[in-house]
Amino acid sequence: MARVKIENLKKYFGNVKALNGIDIEIKDGKFVVLLGPSGCGKTTLLRCISGLEKVTDGKIFFDSVEVTNLSPRNRNVSMVFQSYAVWPHMKVYENIAYPMRIKGYDKDKIKEKVVWAADTLNISELLNRYPAQLSGGQRQRVAVARAIVLEPAVLLMDEPLSNLDALLRVSMRSELKKLQERIGTTTIYVTHDQVEAMTMGDEIAVMHNGVIQQFGTPEDIYHRPANIFVAGFIGSPQMNFLEVEVIRKDNVLFLRNEDLSIKLPKDLAEKIENDDNKKLILGIRPEDIHKEKDKESTEFEAIEGKVYFTERLGSDTIVHLDFKGIRIVSKLPGDVKIKEGENLKMYMDLGKVHLFSTVDGKALI
Ligand SMILES: Nc1ncnc2c1ncn2[C@@H]1O[C@H](COP(=O)(O)OP(=O)(O)O)[C@@H](O)[C@H]1O
Ligand SMILES: [Mg+2]
């Protein structure tokens, strides 16, 4: 186990800045997810941590030891890849034993650890099979068993579940998470799937364009997104964004545009007291727009428009409302009685409104 600390890490491929100044400190024993769209630099960051990729600039520490220029085998890390990468010509036992063999462990020690790793991954009965005789999920378990057999200080996983079918992916999520809790190895897990990130990560680093946009707990990232990118990337359907202007009238603050005039509740107003006449982006999640005012929250803003489109998802209904030419998306209960084309009044929960700068996209609240 180890704490992983990364300082101003850069990795350029020619003029592609795959990593452009990464700073992060991952505490010992944590399960941290790197989340972001394809091409944002997740795999590159993982490969730099493993030593498979030489960094352009910056430093990497495991505990207080700088490992930036150490070869992978001297770092005490293991990596699990998206493709299972198990050796087809070796039985499961030999696959798991392989990292120990190349380090020259004796036979008894190897056996003891292979049995432990196989037991931990629930594949003890498969030790005599060849990979071709295994399902995708079983093969991935073998890959994970092989990765933990040497009890690495840091375990790296790059989209390990993305080749599995949907049902198996869901059950493997909880299995991997429980496994990590049991063995306690500091784990860095890459995915582009926000549900995977939210359900597995103790903390999530959201990446975009080779930079970490926000590092926090799943709760932080969802409820307190640091900027428009994070707000838009996390949550499905996506947060609604509206351009508004801060207007003061008789010493009361309003958020206004051609179609809206929202009188700000006091706690929200306090945060933008000095922003008179500034343009801002208002963000509100689909789940914070309701068909009825729920009584516990105090302040709501009504919006009325025509139902343009509904998506019946079973447990939820996604309503696309045409509000004066703007599309507003809300998430209502699955059994809500709504028809396309009808007029509908809905209520934005003003306690859940996010505000962002139009200049740099940073959250104001
Ligand atoms: N070996 C390489 N040579 C050139 N460009 C690369 C190489 N590896 C990655 N890149 C580029 O670096 C960026 C980040 O890639 P990657 O880390 O694979 O992203 P992700 O894993 O988030 O999808 C992309 O623009 C990709 O094209
Ligand atoms: Mg990748």
Quick take:
This protein has 365 residues and is α+β, with helices and mostly antiparallel strands. Helices cover 25% and strands 35% of the residues. It folds into two domains: 230 residues, 3-Layer(aba) Sandwich (Rossmann fold); 118 residues, OB fold (Dihydrolipoamide Acetyltransferase, E2P), CATH 2.40.50.140.
Report the end-to-end length measured between terminal Cα atoms.
36 Å
CATH superfamily of the largest domain: P-loop containing nucleotide triphosphate hydrolases
> Hey, roughly how much beta strand do the residues contain?
25-35%
How many helical stretches? 9
Spans of at least 5 consecutive residues with low confidence: none
User: Count of DSSP E strands?
Assistant: 20
Structural class: alpha+beta
Shape: elongated
Domains, number: 2
**Strand line-up in the sheet with most strands:** 6-7-8-3-9-10
Approximate helicity band: 10-25%
> What integer is the average pLDDT?
94
What is the CATH topology assignment of the largest domain? Rossmann fold
- The topology string of helices and strands comes to EEEHEEEHHHEHEHEEHHEEEHEEEEEEE
Per CATH, which architecture of the largest domain?
3-Layer(aba) Sandwich
In the CATH scheme, the class of the largest domain would be: Alpha Beta
